[in-house]
Amino acid sequence: MKKIAFVIAAIVLCGLAFSQNPEKPRLISGPFAGAVTKNSAKVWIAYRGNGQNMLTLLDTSDNTTITPTGFHKINDDKGNTALVMDFTDLQPEHTYKAVVAFDLLNLHPKCFIKTQADTAVKDLNFILGSCALLNTGFSRLIFPGSSSEIFGRMKRQRSEFMVWLGDNVYYFHKHYGSYQGMFGRNLKIRRGFISLSGFLAAQPNYAIWDDHDYGWNDSDKKFPQKDSSLIVFKGFWPNPYAEKEDFKGNYFTFRYYDAEFFMTDDRWFRDSEGDTAGAYLGKEQLAWLKDKLLHSDATFKFICTGSQVLNDSYFGESYAKYPHERNNLFDFIATNNIKGVIFLTGDKHYSELSLRNWKGYPLYDFTSSPITSPVVPAKFLGFYHNSYSVPGSILYRKNFGKISLTGPVGNRSCKMEIYGRGGHKKWEYIIDASELQNRIQDKKSVKGVNKKHLKPAAK
Asked: What span, in angstroms and rounded, lies between the C-alpha atoms of 296 and 299?
């Protein structure tokens, strides 16, 4: 009790000190890491006052202090700043502690960043998910039950990084109408949920958006506040955007050893539904994706996007509603013998694994949704149909996914898993890298692959 009383008193004193000196920096949220390579890292914080140069990295192996070499910040009209800091000249496979100089009480979540090893191939695992509705204020009464406890279960996985597949924050009408509204919504979620802050600090995070953290429901390229939305998203997610490439939109790539991730934008260039020849990724982004795939030597090539890709069903949003562009991408993969392709998707409010034979090439789509949002039991409501669903893989529960890449060079494998809200594994599915290089001859072979690998978790 004495310790609690001391902490409360210290917080009150700090608040009084800040009120007397509004320029004195005060941490609001963070820190957490975004893009991490063997020699660099991006770190995000939010603060009030003059705090741009007040976060450093401490090399835990020799106590060397590293200062940031670059900054990207955005502000709101209330004096709040979201800041992404670039740290370079780091050492491979070293662990760095994020030190916030103006958080004297050390109340921020502990953030340790481990750089990648200086090697081409290494075993690794990462987690993934989408649709994280967290409610504040009156919206808690409208959408009850969106608990943040699942982030504690995700943190216990101790994964090397997290892939956020969209709808990471939900905008409502009062938010998506302005830059200030979107900034405020992101900041309120980041500082309002301790379990989320602790999870973000536990590993690097990479994020794409979908409709709800871009604009209104099912929004496309016509969303009037898209420029403001892009500025806010890039200010709150420290992704490795290519600064020298002249394009707008929210897409990028990153790599961990022999796995490369192609993080796509399914909103900025997206045409309205109804035109089967319309754009989903758009001409510029599709050309970018094809070029990146063509020149990638990664064993596993994960293409990440908000909507399901392989499913032909028109229920909800899906790439199937843009068949001209989608089939063009599939044909490109098959014609150019792009090996190791796996799609990672979200949005559906249920999880599923799909496998499709496209002109002899096996394509997988691992859908992980929702993290905290309400579940949509599409099958029981009569909406569901997916001819390519792996039997037993559908899960109508709040969940997150995990992928582990293991094995020696030339014999790598990819294990996919789904975990429920309580942290219990529901199923696993193993794909050998060789499967993503060999042609599948017929549908019977596809069914045989499904039966061979799907493994429900023990009850």
From this structure: 9
Q: What is the pLDDT of residue 8?
A: 42
pTM of this prediction? 0.92
Sign of CA dihedral 279, 285, 289, 295: positive
Backbone φ/ψ region at 137: left (φ over 0), alpha (ψ -120 to 50), beta:
left
CA 349 to CA 270: how far, in whole Å?
Answer: 21
| Phi, psi values for residue 68, rounded to 5° | -70, 150
Domain end among 51, 83, 111: 111
- CA 183/CA 228 separation, integer angstroms: 9
Each residue's pLDDT tens digit, 185-237: 999 999 889 999 999 999 999 999 999 999 999 999 999 999 999 999 999 99
Residues 163 and 226 grouped into a single domain: yes
Q: 109: phi > 0 → left, psi -120 to 50 → alpha, else beta; which?
A: beta
CA 371, CA 352: separation in Å to the nearest integer?
14
What pLDDT digit, counting tens, does each position of 145-167 carry? Answer: 568 999 999 999 999 999 999 99
